[in-house]
């Protein structure tokens, strides 16, 4: 075993953490799946008066983009199982982030509940907190060496995809809140502000890539998820009731930047 993989003996706190995160993950995933309308009921796109639908604002991703949640939920379920394995009780990376992962899952379930209650402003607050939790995990994982293969791969891939997608979703959620808050177009107009937002996403992807350049297994999934979301923003603006060629072009360019930024950053770091 890698000596960096574990720290000390298994404690009662480790066992409590393992069981709590596993049970909490099941509750959070089932609750989020039911709440999103996967088994009937009101889909998220129809909740809150359709404020978060694929055509609500120029930066709303087209409907197929949300299929990434099935991948993220699968990763979270696998993470919950892996961290609960007896031999993983003392893994130092799992010890450092397991509670944070559980918090992120509960926040996601809360976000769905708030949207179903019709509060777009409340959902924006929740998703910003969720993004902060995921960013905290990202920083922790970048600063820690990998331990054994299974927990390291599962953790990096899941957190990376989760962070990348929520980064784009936060921008879309904020745009939806500003739209229903009737703040006006603040001088730039809907197209101008949409370009600013997708450009901000591209800059954020560059920042993630630069910071996590020595952790390709973590940062490349971030870029992939952001590129996925931005691509579907672009596709959504090329058809349907909210066509905007300027936003579509900006979104496609931003998607390319999000995809390439972590790859270029990690390759550059390896050459040094």
Residue stretches low in confidence (pLDDT < 50, at least 5 long) are none
The main pleated sheet reads as:
none
Give the number of helices: 8
What is the chain-wise order of helices and strands?
A: HHHHHHHH
Measured on Cα atoms, how large is the radius of gyration? Answer: 19 Å
Find the count of extended strands (DSSP E, 2+ residues).
Answer: 0
Termini gap = 29 Å
Structural class: mainly alpha
What general outline do the C-alpha atoms trace?
Answer: globular
Q: Estimate the strand proportion.
A: under 5%
Number of domains: 1
- Based on the structure, what is the oligomeric state of the protein chains? single chain
pLDDT average, as an integer?
A: 93
Helix content: over 70%
Which labels suit this protein?
mainly alpha; 8 helices
List the topology elements.
Blueprint: H1 12-35, H2 68-84, H3 92-116, H4 120-143, H5 149-180, H6 189-211, H7 216-236, H8 245-271
Helix pairs in contact: 1-2, 1-3, 2-5, 3-4, 4-5, 5-6, 5-7, 6-7, 6-8, 7-8
Describe this structure in words.
The two termini are about 30 Å apart. The chain is mainly α. The chain is built from eight helices and no strands. It has one domain (about 10-270). The chain has helices at about 10-35, 70-85, 90-115, 120-145, 150-180, 190-210, 215-235, 245-270. Helix 1 (about 10-35) packs parallel to helix 3 and helix 3 runs antiparallel to helix 4 (about 120-145). InterPro entries: TspO/MBR-related_sf (IPR038330), TspO_MBR (IPR004307).
């Amino acid at each position: 075993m890698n000596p960096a993989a574990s720290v000390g003996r298994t404690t009662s706190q480790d066992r409590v953490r393992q069981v709590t995160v596993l049970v909490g993950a099941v509750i959070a995933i089932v609750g989020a799946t039911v709440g999103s309308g996967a088994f009937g009921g009101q889909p998220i796109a129809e909740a809150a008066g359709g404020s978060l639908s694929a055509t609500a604002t120029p930066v709303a991703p087209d409907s197929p983009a949300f299929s990434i949640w099935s991948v993220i939920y699968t990763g979270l379920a696998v993470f919950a199982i892996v961290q609960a394995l007896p031999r993983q009780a003392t893994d130092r990376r799992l010890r450092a982030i397991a509670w944070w992962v559980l918090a992120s899952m509960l926040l996601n379930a809360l976000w769905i509940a708030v949207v179903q209650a019709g509060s777009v402003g409340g959902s924006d607050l929740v998703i910003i907190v969720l993004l902060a939790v995921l960013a905290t995990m990202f920083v922790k994982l970048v600063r820690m060496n990998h331990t054994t293969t299974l927990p390291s791969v599962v953790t990096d891939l899941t957190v990376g995809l989760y962070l990348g997608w929520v980064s784009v979703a936060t921008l879309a959620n904020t745009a939806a809140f500003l739209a229903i808050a009737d703040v006006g177009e603040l001088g730039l107009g809907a197209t101008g502000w949409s370009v600013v937002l997708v450009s901000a996403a591209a800059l954020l992807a560059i920042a993630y890539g630069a910071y996590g350049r020595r952790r390709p297994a973590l940062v490349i999934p971030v870029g992939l998820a952001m590129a996925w979301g931005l691509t579907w923003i672009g596709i959504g603006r090329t058809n349907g009731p909210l066509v905007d060629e300027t936003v579509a072009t900006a979104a496609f360019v931003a998607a390319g930047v999000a995809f390439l930024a972590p790859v270029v950053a990690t390759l550059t770091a390896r050459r040094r």
